[in-house]
Amino acid sequence: MNTNQKIYTLHVHGMHCNSCVILTETELVDHPGVASAKSSLHARTVEICGDFGDKPLAEIAAELSGLLSEHSLSTEPEKKQINWKEFTIAIPVALGFAFLFILLQKLGIVNLVNAGSVTYGTAFVIGVIASLSTCMAVVGGIVLSMSATFAKEGDKVRPQLLFHGGRLASFFILGGVIGTLGAAFQLGAVGTFVLGIIIGLSMLLLGINLLDIFNFTKHLQPAMPKFISRQAFTVTKLNHTLTPALIGIATFFFPCGFTQSMQIYTLSTGSFLKGALTMFIFALGTLPVLALISFSSFSIQNSAKAGIFFKSAGLIVILFAIFNIINSLVAIGLIPPVFNF
Asked: Containing H/E element for 229?
């Protein structure tokens, strides 16, 4: 260790999920003065080991912030105020979605929820919500960065096609692999029930985190092992013609709660085709927004109505979680049918 190296602790602003933790650490170590970086989602801080000479902490924070694509550093903690008035719009929106959902179920137009399982319709809707969520914003940031890099070289379309094609293909193939692995476990009724409850609780945590009211729930979300996620992020630093496709494939391993909830469910399908289609349709749900990000500077986080959207999306995800948990309880016979769709 360099004897001039010191430990600096800075506050990270804009941190929402485990993707933020990995992204922050990965981007900071690119600085020549940084030997290592370790972020904390719970404390929303990053501990940096490095050599910055006699620079004041505020100057170091400003210098390192320039490396971060989605966050900023400060010597002061982020001051967040909960805008409760946003719920006056978010609650009616979520209830309106629930009413529409029940109506579509009654009419038989689309089957979003089935007893004890996640349908393809649910996977698509969750994909749409995920594409606009805070954790998928990290993927959006990487897409924007990639787009800007290749645009400078006069290549705007091909990298996008490679990225989205690689992403859809990997979600189909790897989803099928997970489904096949699930067949080896032979979960049975009890195992399927337990897995259904785990999925429901994971979605419940996702919904609560989207409301952005409680900080302690953010680190409770199941996450991909850190070393796998870290390796996935390093793919974004490669400079090769096929890099966009590799980045698309790597997003399967990013620590996004929505993706991991669907991966857990896919394990319960016990089928290559069902697992592949579930993850493919989920990725298809994320495609419109990610494609929009690819060719523009679209970002829901920068919108003045971002708080309303995230709270509405959070309440909708919570409703999905409740439906899933209740239907799992009904499927195993612990409670009588509650919803007659």
From this structure: helix 226-234
Would you give the distance in Å from CA 135 to the centre of its chain?
4
The angle formed by the CA atoms of residues 268, 285 and 241, to the nearest 5 degrees, is: 100
Q: Which fold has domain 6-74?
A: Alpha-Beta Plaits (3.30.70)
Cβ atoms of 120 and 175 within 8 Å: the answer is: no
Residue 334 is classified by DSSP as S
Alpha carbon of 311 to those of 4, 177, 295: distances in Å?
A: 46, 34, 27
- Report how far residue 52's alpha carbon sits from residue 56's, in angstroms, rounded to the nearest whole number: 9
Question: Which of these, 13, 180, 111, lies nearest to 323 by C-alpha position?
Answer: 111
Residue 137 CB coordination number (10 Å): 23
Sign of the CA dihedral with 297 first, then 136, 171, and 145 last:
positive
Q: How far apart are CA 93 and CA 50, in angstroms?
A: 48
The torsion defined by the Cα of 116, 117, 121 and 126, in degrees rounded to 10, comes to 100
Quick: pLDDT tens for 4-56: 788 999 999 877 777 778 778 888 888 888 998 998 887 889 999 998 888 89
Coil, strand or helix at 41? coil
Higher pLDDT, 167 or 297: 167
**Chain region(s) in the chain for CATH 3.30.70.100:** 6-74
CA R_g for the chain: 21
pTM value is 0.69
Mean pLDDT of the region 140-162: 69
